[in-house]
Amino acid sequence: AAPNMVLPNVHSLGYKAGQSVHRLIEKHQAPEIPSLFEIWEFLKSLPYLYREWWWNLVMQDPVHVLVETTLLLSVLYMLISQRNRDWRQDKNERLQKEEEKALLRQWKQEERVELAPTDIDYGVPQVIVHAVHGRTMDIQQGDDNGQVHTVLNFATNDFLGMSSSTLENDQDGPGVAVKNASREALSKYGCGSCGPRGFYGTIDVHLDLEEAISKFTKTEGAIMYSDGASTVSSTIAAFAKRGDLLVVDDGVYEPILTGVSLSRANVKWFRHNDMDDLRRVLNEIKATDVRLGRKSSDQRRFIVVEGLYKNSGTIVPLAELVALKHEYFYRLIIDESFSFGTLGDTGRGVIEMSGKRYMYDADIVTISLENALGSIGGVTVGNEEVVDHQRLSGAGYCFSASCPPFTASAAIQALSQLESRPELLRRLNEIRVYFHKRLSAEMNGVVPQVLVVTSDEKSPIVFLEVSENAEAVLKDKSLPDDASLLEAVVQECLQNGVAMVSTARHAQDESMGNELPLPAIKLTLSTVHTKKDIDECLSTLRMAVQNVFCL
């Protein structure tokens, strides 16, 4: 092949420059410094060498020189002209003092938004929670003129009472041990952690927690995040990238949706807990692979689910899901944030309850520390590769300040309480069984005629939705929509001393492609509840439903 026409000239320039340097050095074989005159003569020869090189280039390829010279001059002109031009020097464009004052006055009066707007209409009275005492909480409503009321707490996710001081007739409840461990850590380490995990933010208790929860779940390792929601969001985005494939249950909650969005991966949705629909989706993907001549190994592929779904209280059919995962060669990401500490014989979640194995049947498992363990943060457990990859790719790990050390100590103590006190899970199951038993008796004529339980009976999160046949038993056929009715029921229950949650208003992005959950009443059961609390809750709920639905 013919050599590039520019290279001989570059070689010629370099060769002649080298000759000049060689002659300069030959005169000084001894380690002597050249004189200033000799250095000056050498520098004076450089323009001549450059001129000769440039002229040879013009003679051999004038078009090339012309194009490059034009481009160089254009770039220099734009840089100089943009730097020197100042539009404020143009008198025709400058504002007069009066015009400046008028614009500033207009911006202050019309454009500037208040830092804390007070005229937002939320549709329902706002509730301020002053304190949570396990089975009760102190609240203040917007129309109470500052009065604080104590109500029964069926609204928080403190499933095992780790955030509570005592259990019923037990002055040595798990919450006491958790609080004592937090106080000791606060006295030893102080409050803050001073930075992200990778930059002076790792304290020994963070590593102790990772080791403890890895040992508890029988996995190779664990990585701790500073926020429960960002745990699953960061984990999904760390493994799935643009061009990869996520097959996601359309009933997942907001942090998973955030992770799916951040990943920029291709997304396929299947109907909530419908394994037949999941098989259909997987078969469609397989058929597309055959049509395009694409191997399944050409992209990373994940199935994403929750163990216990926050937005519905249902439990994933893990046995069927794992069978499909192995059949179609997918990796499984499962979020056990609400099932960890509540399901399984020892509280290891739906994986234990289904008789499956970490790292084999479930490749990546995320767990929030903010529910059953009563702390702050979250962890992802798995094999060594899963954990180490996130230490450089998990956004929440790399860029967020790590948890205060005392929260890690609280989680370690809560995990110890879960291991050493199996009666916590037994009591939670007793409360759950009693609730469903009393629900049928106390809510006779209301359930299932007006409200129907849509959550799993093994779930400590109970969802009540409006029955499809409710209209047939209602006396007033002109009642408002289901969302408004359920919100009214929850507000009346709160006025009568029982706090629960209405899921009627969901601020989710419908463009994601998943189904928004139906309006429902959500009640959360805990070991700190008593049978008397359950009876009072159901009695209050029955009266509120009868009043609102005009039964």
Could you please describe the fold and organization of this structure?
The protein has 551 residues and is of the alpha/beta class. It has 19 helices and 15 strands. The strands form 3 sheets. The protein has a 7-stranded mixed beta sheet, with helices on both faces. It has a 4-stranded mixed beta sheet with strand order 1-2-3-13. A 4-stranded antiparallel beta sheet has the order 11-12-15-14. The radius of gyration is 34 Å and the shape is elongated.
Helix-strand layout with pairing:
Elements: H1 6-26, H2 36-60, H3 62-84, H4 97-111, E1 127-133, E2 136-141, E3 149-153, H5 174-189, H6 197-201, H7 204-217, E4 221-225, H8 228-239, E5 245-249, H9 254-263, E6 266-270, H10 275-292, E7 301-306, H11 318-328, E8 331-335, H12 350-353, E9 364-368, E10 378-382, H13 384-393, H14 395-399, H15 405-420, H16 423-442, E11 451-453, E12 461-466, H17 470-473, H18 482-495, E13 498-499, E14 501-502, E15 521-524, H19 531-548
Helix pairs in contact: 1-2, 2-3, 5-15, 7-15, 8-9, 10-11, 16-19, 18-19
Features:
551 residues; alpha/beta; seven-stranded mixed β-sheet; four-stranded mixed β-sheet; 15 strands; elongated
